[in-house]
Specification:
This protein has helices spanning 2-17, 34-52, 163-166, 168-176, 229-232; strands at 65-72, 78-84, 90-96, 102-105, 121-124, 130-138, 141-150, 153-157, 195-207, 212-224, 236-240, 251-265, 269-277. The protein is α+β, with helices and mostly antiparallel strands and 282 residues long. The protein has one domain. The strands form two sheets. Strands 5, 6, 7, 8, 9, 10, 11, 12 and 13 form a nine-stranded mixed beta sheet that branches.
Length: 282
Amino acid sequence: MNDRINTERVRIFSRFQSSSPATSFDGSYPMKQIQSRIRAVVALSLALVAHAGATAMYDYKPGQFLVIDGGTSPDKKFSIVSGENKAGEFGLYLRDARTKKLIGQLEEVAIDLDSAPDAYHAHWAPDSKHVGVSSRADRHLTRDVIYRIENGRAYVVETPQLMCRAVPEFCALQKGLGGALTLDSDDYYDKAWKVRQNESFSEITKWISPTRFVVSEESQWQVKERDPSATLRQYGEAEKSEDEGDESVALYHVWFDAEGECELLPNDKSQVLNTQPQKTKE
């Protein structure tokens, strides 16, 4: 069981490290099978799990800023950079790519874990008017923040969530058990729970048009008392723990894996148009 959990951690981190997405929304790859995927990497999981939790650090000079992975906009007018201001404070910024002048800090991007520029990933819309920036808020939590770029400023756009569109029954189960304890909860390690999130990854993998894009979303959960298998449909898998320790109730490990086509809406909103299980190369 521990190998299985560690394998999922390695897989999620490895997807985040890759600058070329392994998924395709056009259906050109056969459907991913969770069991075969786990078997393929389980032999490496223990060796790689330490690396998966490692931080990516860079020693900046005061006032030095470097372009993050994919940070330059298609029209070459803007770039997303990481670095330290003259006071030695680290952050991510929108920068004029021609004058090298900083426009403003992207304060919503998580920066507490990593500092190296290649630990942050930008995914620009083809018209350079929107960009998604992904980073790790925690060793097991990768977030994507979307910005609208207009009049030389960055405005936060609502980030779409796939899970409750893909598997509404699983979201209803969470609600029925008192709600989920998520990784960004302040009392994550202290609060009692019946549903707990252990891993979460979300990132834009492709822009289809200036207003439509594909999101990859993966997560791993633990559920007590109720078997969630039937709620996941083709989007995931649940496995009952064989080692429940002193627990008197059943414990299930849950894996969710989906990609979805999403659309930008007026007023910096977004919506999920459709979802499907992840597809990957064999």
